[in-house]
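Late entry, written up from scratch paper. The run itself happened at the end of the previous shift, but nothing got recorded in the book at the time, so transcribing now.
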Amino acid sequence: MYTGEVSVDAMTVFGIEISTRHGKAYELAEMINFCVALESRGMRKKVISVFYDSNSCCCGFELCPSVDRYDDSEQAILDAAKETIGQFDWFGTVKHGAPLERG
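Output as recorded:
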């Protein structure tokens, strides 16, 4: 028996692997929106994977080694996350963005 909200808890969007621990629909939607925002900024190749930990309600990113902590690509990825992800880990600090409306 499946206990998540969606039956697909992992997929690839614009070449970025995304997954949610417990199949939460809003987590999957936020990560898809994040990937779309990255694509529109030309940053999709800078992110390897995205994982939403349903237990902690926090999203994490695996960035390419070429992303430096304070360069323009890092800022573009951070801006995309702030626009699309409700809560995420950013270099060891929990940040809050604009979550999806859950109605």
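The mean pLDDT is 91.
(Scratch paper discarded after transcription.)
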